[in-house]
Amino acid sequence: MINCCVNPDCSTEFKVFDGGNLYAMERRSANTEFFWLCPTCEPMIALYLDPNGAVAVKSRSDHECHQPPHPDNRLRLISRTAESRTWLEASRARGFRLPGELRREPPSSSPEAA
After folding, report:
1. Residue 41 burial (CB < 10 Å; 0-12/13-18/19+)?
2. Radius of gyration of the chain (CA)
3. How many C-beta atoms lie closer than 10 Å to residue 53's C-beta?
4. Is residue 57 within 8 Å of residue 38, measured between CB atoms?
5. 92: helix, strand or coil
6. What is the pLDDT of residues 79-104, one digit of tens each?
7. Residue 4 zone, left/alpha/beta (φ > 0; ψ -120 to 50; rest)
8. Rounded CA gap, 97 and 103, in Å?
9. Which of 30-39, 74-83, 84-93 has maximum average pLDDT?
10. How far apart are CA 97 and CA 105, in angstroms?
11. Spatial distance between the Cα atoms of 65 and 99, rounded to a whole number of angstroms
12. Three-state SS for 55?
């Protein structure tokens, strides 16, 4: 059962899943265990399996070598907070344009265009 954010420096309680990331650690020898990173910690904290196969946290800014897979445990992201932007805004951010948008040119702001 999830009680709070997995980040030991955070005390955000898990009440309903309305944000953040939900992870599952699957083990060969035990039941699946779930971990939650709250929406505040998610952009700054990453989860990984330490050499003993336990879930640990580290800063996303750490550029350490990627941990090799653990032979008995597997950590996977099972749910991520959806983008707060609309479908069209998110699509435009990825480079998608509607057919009419391809032909339009943005208005010129230079004084020569007037």
Report:
1. buried
2. 21
3. 14
4. no
5. helix
6. 887 544 455 555 555 566 655 555 54
7. beta
8. 10
9. 30-39
10. 13
11. 43
12. strand
- Non-local CB neighbours of 48 within 8 Å, separated by 6+ positions: 55, 56, 57, 58, 67, 75
> Does any domain span residue 26?
yes
How many angstroms separate the CA atoms of 4 and 48, rounded? 18
Give me the number of domains the chain comprises. Answer: 1
End-to-end Cα separation, the chain, in angstroms: 65
107 part of a folded domain: no
pLDDT at 35 over 90: yes
Q: Which domain holds residue 88?
A: 21-101
pLDDT at res. 52: 84
Spatial separation of the C-alpha atoms in residues 5 and 88, rounded to whole Å: 31
Note the pTM of the prediction, 2 decimals: 0.62
The answer to whether residue 1 is domain-embedded is: no
Residue 91 belongs to a domain: yes
